[in-house]
């Protein structure tokens, strides 16, 4: 009896969703042939799923955001599936060989790599952040390094006088609000700033407005809420470098930072938080699979990497098709996994493949951003959201109480959902790499 593996690299938002979808809707549809069985193998550097959305609050306060609200064990979420259909491996993918259809995996403590052969490969390795405060680091075992990072940061935080945050996307804005409220407290109901601020918090924005996915009026509202917490926003300026003398080896935070800005000025700071963006976790992949941004180049309608016969797909922020975000997964995962199922059935039976499922990005204005524990800004489906609605949805606990378990358990993909086949037709498709 032969066991064929659907291999998923990455156990965060996209990888977990793809694994549940495959177990529920792909494996049961595959024809039994010559005693062949199929399994879904999920590889992730850590045993826990890090709800990274909560990072801005989790790094500031254990009381406001205990680890039980942002670290969740992965394996128990798959316990209900039939024995032998799911396998979890803690490790890091270090090399992919498309010729042999195999992946080299190094264990969490750096032991010798093992090799896993795959029938189909789903790349869901996501992105990393320059600051360790927002990424579950690949060297971590059971969350220990992440918790140590937060602990060191939280010990340093109460004594600081100046904090600089580079980057004014949602993570930078949220982190600025959380830190400023923690240090300076909440302002009075009608106050425009904290009554007795203890620290200066400076948010450095490279563009002329914060939160680039949102309209300018919402960005201005965010600035108003930040100022009430004691945050100063510097626009049209980039952080060139942040130099320090004393480094805390775990947290990468330090006293006596000198932050160099693109306008030639410098800021002396106790803490510098780099929230300037993300970096794709794709360094282990063949170079021909990557675009100029080091994202996985794919067909932006089918999410295939290479031609149909390669049986390689990408979901999540590592892919070239997406502008990022958790909500995008609701459209991308069903597309990639339905096309995987179609391709596998054709491969096993030798019959002509069925129609493609097409990914259509949701480009409506859609992002919500808490600012401290009481305020927030955002839009959903193109409509501006009141502050109290942002608080109700995300500001209370960064959605860790309701949405995190749904992602972990794959609740959004209990059913395949309705979809319209590609009108071009399967017989005409010939998918190649797309670098745009």
Automatic annotation (TrEMBL):
Superkingdom to which the source organism belongs: Eukaryota
Entry GO MF terms: electron-transferring-flavoprotein dehydrogenase activity; flavin adenine dinucleotide binding
The keyword Oxidoreductase is annotated on this UniProt entry: yes
One Pfam match: Pyr_redox_2
Entries under InterPro entries matching the protein: FAD/NAD-bd_sf, FAD/NAD-binding_dom
UniProtKB keywords: FAD, Flavoprotein, Oxidoreductase
Residues in FAD/NAD(P)-binding domain copies: 6-327
GO cellular component, one term: cytoplasm
Family statement: Belongs to the FAD-dependent oxidoreductase family.
Name of protein: FAD/NAD(P)-binding domain-containing protein
Native source species: Delitschia confertaspora ATCC 74209
């Amino acid at each position: 009896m032969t066991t064929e593996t659907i291999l998923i690299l990455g156990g965060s938002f996209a990888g977990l969703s793809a694994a549940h979808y495959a177990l529920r809707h792909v494996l049961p549809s595959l024809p039994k042939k010559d005693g062949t069985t199929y399994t879904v193998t999920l590889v992730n550097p850590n045993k826990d799923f890090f709800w990274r959305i909560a990072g801005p609050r989790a790094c500031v306060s254990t009381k406001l955001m205990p680890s039980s609200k942002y670290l969740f064990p992965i394996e128990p979420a798959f316990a209900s599936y039939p024995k032998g259909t799911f396998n979890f491996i803690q490790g890091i993918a270090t090399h992919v060989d498309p010729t042999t259809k195999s992946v080299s995996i190094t264990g969490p403590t750096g032991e010798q790599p093992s090799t896993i052969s795959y029938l189909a490969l789903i790349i869901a390795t996501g992105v990393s952040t320059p600051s360790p405060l927002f990424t579950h680091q690949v060297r971590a075992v059971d969350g220990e390094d992440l918790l140590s990072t937060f602990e060191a940061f939280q010990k340093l935080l109460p004594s600081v006088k100046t904090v600089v945050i580079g980057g004014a996307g949602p993570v930078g804005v949220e982190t600025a609000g959380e830190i400023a409220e923690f240090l300076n407290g909440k302002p009075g109901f009608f106050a425009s700033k904290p009554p007795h601020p203890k620290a200066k918090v400076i948010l450095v924005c490279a563009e002329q407005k914060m939160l680039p996915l949102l309209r300018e009026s919402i960005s201005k509202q965010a600035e108003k809420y930040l100022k009430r917490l004691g945050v100063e926003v510097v626009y049209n300026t980039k952080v060139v470098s942040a130099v320090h003398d004393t480094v805390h080896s775990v947290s990468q935070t330090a006293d006596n930072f000198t932050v160099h800005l693109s306008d030639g000025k410098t800021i002396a700071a106790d803490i510098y938080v780099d929230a300037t963006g993300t970096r794709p976790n794709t360094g282990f992949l063949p170079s021909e699979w990557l675009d100029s941004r080091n994202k996985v180049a794919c067909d932006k309608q089918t999410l295939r990497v290479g031609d149909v016969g390669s049986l390689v797909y990408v979901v999540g922020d590592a892919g070239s098709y997406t502008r990022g975000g958790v909500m995008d997964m609701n459209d991308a995962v069903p597309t990639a996994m339905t096309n995987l199922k179609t391709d596998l059935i054709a491969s096993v039976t030798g019959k002509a493949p069925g129609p493609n499922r097409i990914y259509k990005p949701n480009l409506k204005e859609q992002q919500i951003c808490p600012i401290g524990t009481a305020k927030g800004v955002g839009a959903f489906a193109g409509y501006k959201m009141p502050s109290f609605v942002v608080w109700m949805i995300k500001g209370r606990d960064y959605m860790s109480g309701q949405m995190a378990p749904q992602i972990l358990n794959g609740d959004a993909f209990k059913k395949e959902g309705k979809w319209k086949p590609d009108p071009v037709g399967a017989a005409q498709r010939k998918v190649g790499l797309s670098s745009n």
